[in-house]
Amino acid sequence: MKYLSTRGLPQKRSFCDILLEGLAPDGGLYLPESYPQINAQELKRLEGVFFQEGYAALAFNILSLFIDDIPSQDLKNLCEKTYTQKTFGTQEIAPVRALDDGLFIQALSNGPTLAFKDMAMQLLGNLFEYELNRKGQELNILGATSGDTGSAAEYAMRGKKGIRVFMTSPHGRMSPFQQAQMFSLLDDNIFNIAIEGVFDDCQDIVKAVSNDLPFKKQLKIGTVNSINWARLLAQVVYYFAGYFQARKMSQKSRISFAVPSGNFGNVCAAHVARMMGLPLHQLVVATNENNVLDEFFKTGVYRVRSSTDTHETSSPSMDISKASNFERFIFDLLDRDGALTNKLFSTDIDAQGYFDLSADPRFKSIREKFGFTSGSSTHQNRLDTIKDVYQKYQEIIDPHTADGLKVAKECTHQDEAIVVLETALPIKFASTITQALGIEPSRPQAFEGIEALPKRVVLMPANVQKIKDFLLENVK
Ligand SMILES: *Cc1c(COP(=O)(O)O)cnc(C)c1O
Question: Which of 1, 254, 315, 375 is within CB 3.0–4.6 Å of 399 for a Cys-Cys bond?
């Protein structure tokens, strides 16, 4: 299996070539040159693998279709080491539960940081360690976070050989729970850097350091952002696992997924699964007030937002100004025309801030050919949905999952079962739950009293040179 760039670069790469990279050299994103096809018989076999051997075995089977440069036994070991009950809380790893007839929730949020990013990041940590060891290299991950991504990265990379994580975050702006989660990690290879500034300042620092190419090369600096192909690939697995479980629990003829979406990473994995032949009916893209994606699926116009036009909402992990994985789907929609994809994402977006596919006949085929539908929510919708679910089913869901559920209900048909992805546990966003229900969500035992644990964090001004000095001091 070879990989190509969405912007048409002629060179093809193998999985391990792109594993440690972000963007392709032409600014595009990597995708497999074709999607491996799963026929009905193979699907039946994979279902058997999942129910008899478990999630790790399913992951190994699916990853094997995309990775041909890691020996089979090694890949199997990596999957088994990653997807354990100890790390993900249940034997099913990503269990599906029924709320109602045809309405399901799939829990992706029982990993170490209680959000779905663990599902991919935990595998990435093990893959990175394996590959760096094979190559005899080291990697220093420099990132910026306002919450979920940074902590998922730190929990995945802690204690890993050959890897250090330098994670900047805006000082005093994350919730006390999120701060405690990150700053209580005392591992030698984890560096928390609280920046006197806002999230944009953190991102600007990361950009400035990464743009200094000699420095970047000297210090072997890399990233773990959501455009990494291996992260996306890891997410494909839980759509198969979710489909198999829902199929078993429901009499409905069709199965769809509703996905709380920001950077389009999660639902892009659903798209890949569907392209492989997993019989998913609809892929419901749920956004919050930052409705860049909903707008595209409704109108054919993809318009990125300025930072003043990007809202801070009560589902903060979906607060995006542009959807960084979206280019992957557009490339497929446009019959993999790299030149046209390049024009849309570099020329059109740069010159005018949007592109418009409303007149392209391929846009009209999105629903039929690719299954996509969409909707969005407001803060009040989230509160109402959280309240409604609590009253009807005595369950508490987090605000992101509430966005997914609200839109799922608008899009589901009679003969269809829908699986809403639970992307975080409510305890991470306790203040919104308290606002909706007047009670605090319960806290998994492992997180009791984490706010009182010793913390390892340095406070620094938003100054690029100071951050570079800090990196130089700590990379030995
Ligand atoms: C990251 C995140 C999302 C959005 O996922 P994308 O892959 O960016 O679309 C939704 N919910 C939670 C809780 C997240 O952490």
Answer: 315
Q: Of 317, 377, 403, which is best to mutate to test ligand 1, by the most ligand atoms within 8 angstroms of its C-beta?
A: 317
CA gap 202, 220 in Å, rounded? 19
The answer to whether 117 is a known catalytic residue is yes
The domains located in the chain, with CATH, are 96-113+230-437 (3.40.50.1100)
Q: For residue 319, give Cα distances in angstroms to 91, 287, 307, 322, 425.
A: 32, 9, 10, 9, 18
Minimum-distance ligand 1 atom for the alpha carbon of 424:
13
Q: Rounded to 10 degrees, what is the CA torsion of 416, 293, 340, 354?
A: 150
Which DSSP letter does residue 445 get?
A: G
Most informative mutation of 318, 319, 421, 429 for ligand 1 (most atoms within 8 A of CB): 318
Ligand 1 centre and the CA of 306: distance in Å? 20
Closest C-alpha to 425, from 400, 446, 408: 400
38 by DSSP, 3-state: which? coil
Q: Chunk the chain into consecutive blocks of 10 residues (it has 476) and report each block's average pLDDT, rounded to whole numbers.
A: 95 94 90 98 98 98 98 98 97 97 96 95 97 96 88 96 95 86 95 91 90 92 89 98 97 97 97 98 98 98 91 90 94 98 95 96 96 98 98 97 98 95 94 96 89 94 96 93
